[in-house]
Backbone:
């Protein structure tokens, strides 16, 4: 994937967030340790997301998920189990001035030394009528990989959480006609030596919101400058409908979300009609059905 040259890059010094940062950090260490930090560390260990001498670009969109991820990375770095480096990377895809100001204000409050770089993604997708969000997401990913690699990083970290994972599983089945999941880590096929990791994989969205509200924090709900024009569409989006479906099922069975998550860990190929392997080769159960047992 080709990405255009970034227009500007703006390093932001460590500005110190004072009591707000201290309160947020203390809540991670105490009140939310089990639900946030322990889950973060669990994913890091289970999926081998951080290795010695990694240089990780922690990608921050301005929302609650990526800001919490940044604080959790700072906390795990503080434990100093092995050497690795962090770059807190904020891409400005064409934010409205007030959105950009909100991102910088929160970085200041939470004592996160971000590096900002600008792109013209919003400008490029303005005229796109079919799947502009999909195109925007792909372009964002490409720019993040490109800038992270330029800064000497070998990984980018994204703030997708547990709820994103189970929603993706159901969306694939209900709207895509396929069984798939959002992987905890992926090797890039377009940027050699680069990898994507999702260390928030086990963290529940309700716990992220609880941390945010407990600390009186206010983040961007959506960084897209077209949000105001598409609010009705967002409210009735496929993901929103899946969220509501899961919520209703959970009311009947509290284990429903865990079962959805486990379903992609317990795939029995002997009972699957067809599947694709890692080389994207399709296999059908009839291929060896008549072979001698």
Residues:
């Amino acid at each position: 994937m080709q990405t255009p040259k970034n227009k500007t890059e703006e390093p932001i010094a460590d500005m110190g967030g004072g009591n707000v940062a201290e309160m947020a950090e203390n809540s991670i260490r105490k009140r939310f340790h089990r639900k946030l930090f322990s889950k973060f560390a669990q994913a890091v260990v289970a999926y081998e997301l951080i290795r010695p001498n990694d240089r990780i670009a922690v990608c921050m969109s301005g929302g609650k998920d990526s800001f919490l991820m940044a604080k959790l990375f700072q906390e795990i770095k503080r434990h100093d189990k092995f050497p690795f480096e962090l770059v807190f990377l904020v891409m400005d895809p064409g934010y409205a001035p007030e959105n950009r100001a909100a991102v910088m204000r929160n970085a200041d409050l939470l004592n996160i030394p971000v590096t900002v770089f600008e792109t013209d993604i919003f400008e490029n997708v303005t005229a796109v009528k079919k799947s502009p969000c999909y195109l925007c997401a792909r372009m964002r990913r490409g720019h993040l990989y490109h800038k992270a690699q330029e800064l000497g990083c070998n990984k980018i970290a994204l703030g997708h959480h547990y709820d994103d994972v189970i929603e993706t599983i159901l969306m694939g089945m209900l709207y895509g006609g396929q069984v798939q999941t959002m992987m905890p880590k992926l090797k890039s096929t377009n940027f050699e030596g680069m990898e994507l990791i999702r260390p928030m994989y086990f963290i529940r969205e309700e716990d992220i919101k609880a941390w945010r509200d407990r600390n009186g924090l206010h983040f961007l709900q959506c960084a897209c400058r077209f949000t105001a024009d598409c609010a009705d569409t967002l409210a009735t989006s496929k993901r929103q409908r899946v969220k509501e479906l899961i919520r209703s099922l959970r009311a009947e069975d509290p284990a429903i979300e865990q079962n959805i998550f486990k379903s992609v860990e317990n795939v029995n190929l002997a009972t699957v009609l067809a599947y694709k392997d890692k080389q994207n080769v399709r296999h059908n159960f009839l291929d060896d059905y008549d072979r001698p047992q």
User: Anything to note?
Assistant: Residues 1-17, 227-232 have pLDDT under 50 and may be disordered. The first helix runs from residue 18 to 29.
